[in-house]
Amino acid sequence: MLRMPAEDRDQFALHSATVTRLLEGIAAYPVLPSEVEDILGITSRERHKWMKAGRLQSAGTRTVKMRGRAKAVTFHVFTPQHIEDVLDRDLPAVWREEDAAAISENRRRAAAKAQLARGRQKAAKSDEATSEDDDLSAELDGWESFAATGLLR
Questions:
Q1: pTM score, two decimals?
Q2: Residues of 50-71 as b/e, b for ≥16 C-beta within 10 angstroms?
């Protein structure tokens, strides 16, 4: 809010025009990652995941040498129009639902795969036990007649 005394109308108009011009130019500045997280209400983990998936589109990278650090820091920046579009369409909520469905499907698939593996292990163990029994039966005399009576079933 810009306030000035009523007698300074000329100064007010000058300052108002300067502020308007600066605000128009602000739309051309890229949006920083921390600002994206604040605007969209997302975590840095979600930002990284959605960038990797191509949902959040980077406008490029910036490299900054900060005081007190030996290395320069490189990070992605975003266009204000893209962030505004994502916010207007409430895409973070949609993406979270899609991610939750994908996680659920992956867990279901992993459980089915584990159950199949356990079944294979049981079958392999029973085959091993059967082959051991066959080896023992080969060593005993008269085993075929004893097995034929069906007492072990």
A1: 0.62
A2: bbeeebbeeeeeeeeeeeeeee
